[in-house]
Fold:
Amino acid sequence: MKSTKPYLIRAIHEWCADQGFTPYMAVKVDATTRVPREFVKDGEIVLNIGLEATHQLLLGNEEITFQARFGGRPFPVVVPIERIAAIYASENGEGMAFEVTERTPTEAGSELESAGLEVASEVAEEPLTKPARTSTRPVLTRIK
Structure:
């Protein structure tokens, strides 16, 4: 049976757009996640996935892909659905959190190699060069 997670993510994203809110997505970064590593803090990144902040946004069943600017530079982002910890409206924190099961780097790397993809280097643990809104943690509440 297919997971309900991608469907719920799309529903919250659409609800945010209908309400005029900005959808943010919290992601647990690992080797299968393609994001700019300099913006990762403590193995996590929060991404603005609003239509104004993304280009070619695709909310698929296996992964979410889009292009966005980070520090003024374009970057192609790829986030496997299983790495998404939450999606919520930045204005009020309403949204949904998900369980993210941790895999060992060997498990993640083996999956990538079997798909013919290159394994990324480890996630940088360097601090951000300037304060970012990504450090704000969402207050998730039940959607009515």
Remarks:
- The beta strands are 23-28, 44-48, 55-59, 63-70, 73-80, 84-89, 95-97.
